[in-house]
Amino acid sequence: MVKLNKIYTRTGDDGSTGLVDGSRRSKADARMHAIGEVDEANSTLGIAIGALERDGGDAELVAGLRRIQNDLFDLGADIATPGEDFTPGEMSLRIVQSQVDWLEAAIDTANEQLEPLTSFILPGGSAAAAAMHLARAVTRRAERALVAAASGEPINPLASTYLNRLSDYLFVLCRLINRDRGGDILWVPGASR
């Protein structure tokens, strides 16, 4: 499917880059910005996975996060495919409802293991949870970039739904990670007045 035998092509030296359909866009284009934000979210998720593995994270959880990283590559390909037909095909990789459904089931499973929140929580706790909070925040930023891009041209609506669910999942996951590592750090409104 993908063969990279040469890393530089020089085709982007003029500030443009290619989309799946062969068209070219400015690297500053809103669609390209969203693709970059998704890539950054995926990269921060990789950092969070590494922190979780160093902190004794379980293999099943890590496997689910690797699945999400793969989905984020699918999402990048989806965004890089212009057009109004969001049906997946041989030449068009699209986010589909089953990927969103998997995230919703993962959220429900993780949330069942947690006590209800009584306060907002501060991003932190264990190193693994802090890294996961960063991945969550970057995922929210990617979602905002995608919504901005979609305001100017058609983009698969399930792409932004996926990012919305992913940030929710990462939030619940932060709480789950901290549950066994000292607990969440609660926000105390006005504590330093």
Write the layout of secondary structure elements.
Layout: E1 16-18, E2 24-26, H1 30-54, H2 59-79, H3 97-111, E3 121-122, H4 127-150, H5 157-179, E4 185-186
Antiparallel strand pairs: 1-2, 3-4
Uncertain regions: pLDDT < 50 for 5+ in a row? none
H/E series: EEHHHEHHE
Total strands: 4
SS-based structural class? mainly alpha
Strand content: 5-15%
Taking all Cα atoms into account, the compactness measure Rg is: 18 Å
| Helix-residue proportion | 55-70%
Distance between the termini: 58 Å
Gross geometry: elongated
Number of helices: 5
Strand order, sheet with most strands: 1-2
Determine the mean pLDDT: 93
Largest sheet: 2 strands, antiparallel
Which labels suit this protein?
single chain, 193 residues, mainly alpha, two-stranded antiparallel sheet, 5 helices, 5% strand, elongated
Explain what you see.
- The protein has helices at residues 30-54, 59-79, 97-111, 127-150, 157-179, and strands at residues 16-18, 24-26, 121-122, 185-186.
- Strand 1 (16-18) and strand 2 form a beta hairpin.
- The model has no long low-confidence stretch (mean pLDDT 93).
- The radius of gyration is 18 Å and the shape is elongated.
- The protein is mainly alpha-helical and 193 residues long.
- The longest helix has 25 residues, at 30-54.
- The protein is 56% helix and 5% strand.
- Strands 1-2 form a two-stranded antiparallel ribbon. A two-stranded antiparallel sheet has the order 3-4.
- It is built from 5 helices and 4 strands.
